[in-house]
Design brief:
InterPro entries: GDP-Fuc_O-FucTrfase (IPR019378)
Keywords: Carbohydrate metabolism, Fucose metabolism, Membrane, Transferase, Transmembrane, Transmembrane helix
Mean pLDDT: 86
Largest sheet: 5 strands, parallel
Radius of gyration: 25 Å
Bound molecules: guanosine-5'-triphosphate, 2-acetamido-2-deoxy-beta-D-glucopyranose
Shape: globular
Transmembrane segments: 33-50
Structural class: alpha/beta
Protein name: O-fucosyltransferase family protein
Low-confidence stretches: 1-33, 50-64
Number of helices: 15
């Protein structure tokens, strides 16, 4: 069976449209000839007009941009649901999944907030979060897209995009009506509410994990993780045109207990698969470099921050063991080849290791497949070879390769700009490429409790259409 066409046909193919950053100003120093200086000024002035024109065009073209959903008319009896986004990409994705599910169950259209990439805005209680979101505004710094200045340090640290740039939301056309909210200014809701902010039904969360939305309430629900529960059937009776929620992050935030709801949930997940053209093409190139589908296995280790650094050593060991177990279950020869390696790598103080080149590994792997499995390591740490918690992994699997080994392929992403703010979004696409490469490995082992890993797991099981020898959750 050939998975390459099958796996990638799942993703569809969009035509790529590149957005280039306007060239930076070049200031020529000319002291002697003031006429030249005046001409210079004039040219700069014209160029400034040109740039302003360009950014305005970019803005007004936004809705006709292939990435944005076509704006829909608002129906007279249409009702809406919306929510506040927060945290990293995968937390926002989970919020999106939950909001789609809840909107469907409420028979309401969903007003999508933008997707925030880069430096995350973490969760705060409703009023605070809404305020922080509206303050995330680059308008006053828009010159930063054209010039470099100390004021612009943070300009490229984050960017906002329509979700449709990352996922193909047209897949929901027959499922639910989607509208985009291209600003978190409260005023942006007016156009859905007959020009006013009156009568919006807010459900404000004050605590983290406060409100859960339940489709078939049970008595034992009171013992769950969430502080309060809302009966979805009751919320369906709400007559306000707009319901505005705070955070909807959390795996069980919106329950899907009925068969119908479960069907909706599965449908939603199955449509949220990266569709960004460069993400797809670059991940394909890296997979080819690794010897193609079926030729490599993958591990995701999240070890840099929060709960993940605290458990880094243990998690990496767990991942190495799980990968060894999977390989052995798949082919007994792996154990024979790796029993010794594993014992050796567990002995302390042994930090030196030799990593063969990728070409050498491809050769070794061809000659002795069970001795030298090729591993793609997706990780949040910038220099995996120097991170001592990863030493055991490189010891056990010398043929382990990671993003830094594919610089040439990843450079492609540098041409991706957000037309709205001129920010280069290439760096934000790297984790998505890594997810795609990892998901396409023969077996996948992730990091406990990481939503990033959990998403790779979903993509992996979906693309391969089977479970791994050990059916891990992450
Ligand atoms: N390049 C790369 N970056 C990663 C990887 N894992 C985590 N990261 C980075 O860590 C960030 C945090 O992960 P996200 O999933 O966005 O954040 P989150 O929503 O808090 O998810 P988790 O903390 O993993 O549950 C990602 O956006 C990446 O910037 C990885 O394997 N490769
Ligand atoms: C869903 O809402 C629409 C109006 O937006 C209404 O016409 C339709 O009857 C509703 N469907 C159900 C099942 O309530
Ligand atoms: C940013 O603020 C300006 C006003 O200063 C406003 O016109 C614009 O819509 C805001 N942008 C976003 C994305 O909220
Ligand atoms: C949930 O709401 C529906 C509709 O109002 C009602 O029939 C049902 O009894 C409620 N369930 C609970 C546990 O309150
Ligand atoms: C390795 O992991 C431990 C926790 O298991 C952590 O305390 C330590 O800081 C980590 N080392 C590095 C280099 O990240
Ligand atoms: C994740 O945690 C469970 C126990 O909570 C453990 O059995 C499993 O091995 C861990 N997985 C990894 C990859 O560390």
């Amino acid at each position: 069976m050939h998975f390459i066409s099958h796996r990638f046909s799942l993703l569809g193919s969009l035509t790529s449209k590149t957005h280039r950053k306007p060239p930076k100003f070049k200031i020529y120093r000319e002291h002697r000839y003031s006429r030249v200086f005046v001409y210079g000024l004039f040219i700069v002035f014209i160029w400034g007009l040109f740039c302003a024109q360009r950014s305005i065009t970019a803005f007004t073209n936004f809705y006709s941009n292939t990435y944005s959903l076509a704006p829909k008319e608002i129906l007279s009896d249409e009702k809406f649901l919306t929510y506040l986004p927060h945290s990293g990409f995968h937390n926002q994705r989970i919020e999106l999944e939950n909001a789609l599910l809840l909107a469907k169950q409420l028979n309401r259209s969903l007003i999508l907030p933008p997707l925030y990439l880069g430096e995350p805005l973490k969760w705060y209680s409703f009023d605070m979060l809404y305020d922080l979101l509206r303050q995330r505004n680059k308008t006053e710094l828009s010159y930063c897209s054209r010039v470099s200045s100390a004021m612009c340090d943070k300009y490229d640290a984050w960017s906002m995009l329509p979700w449709n740039k990352i996922y193909n939301l047209n897949a929901f056309q027959d499922f639910l009506r989607l509208h985009e909210r291209w600003s978190m200014e409260p005023e942006a809701l007016k156009r859905f509410n007959q020009g006013t902010l009156e009568g919006i039904h807010y459900i404000k969360d004050i605590w983290k994990d406060e409100i859960q939305y339940i489709d078939e309430p049970r008595i034992q629900d009171t013992r769950g993780r969430y502080l309060t529960r809302i009966n979805i059937s009751e919320l369906r009776l709400q007559s306000a045109r707009i319901i505005c929620l705070g955070s909807v992050f959390g795996t069980h935030r919106v329950t899907a207990r009925t068969d119908q709801a479960l069907q909706y949930k599965n449908f939603i997940r199955s449509k949220l698969i990266y569709s960004h053209p460069s993400v797809l093409s670059v991940s394909k190139e890296i997979i080819q470099k690794l010897g193609g589908l079926h030729n490599y296995f993958s591990i995701h280790t999240r070890i840099e921050d929060s709960i993940f650094i605290v458990n880094a050593e243990e998690n990496v060991k767990g991942s190495v063991n799980n990968m060894l177990k999977m390989l052995t279950l798949g082919d007994k020869n792996y154990f024979r080849a790796h029993g010794d390696l594993l014992r050796a790598s567990h002995s302390k103080g042994n930090t030196a290791f030799h990593r063969p080149s990728l070409d050498k590994c491809l050769q070794l792997h061809q000659d002795h497949p069970t001795h030298y499995p090729i591993i793609y390591l997706s990780t949040d740490t910038p220099d995996p070879l120097r991170n001592t918690n990863l030493t055991i992994l490189f010891h056990t699997f010398p043929c382990t390769f990671f993003a830094g080994d594919f610089r040439a392929e990843l450079t492609e992403l540098q041409k991706e700009y957000n037309p709205l703010d001129g920010t280069n979004i290439g760096k934000f696409l790297v984790p998505m490429v890594e997810s795609m490469v990892a998901a396409n490995g023969e077996y996948f082992v992730g990091t406990n409790k990481s939503t990033f890993s959990e998403n790779i797991r979903y993509l992996h099981n979906t693309f391969l259409g089977r479970l791994d020898p050990i059916p891990l959750k992450y």
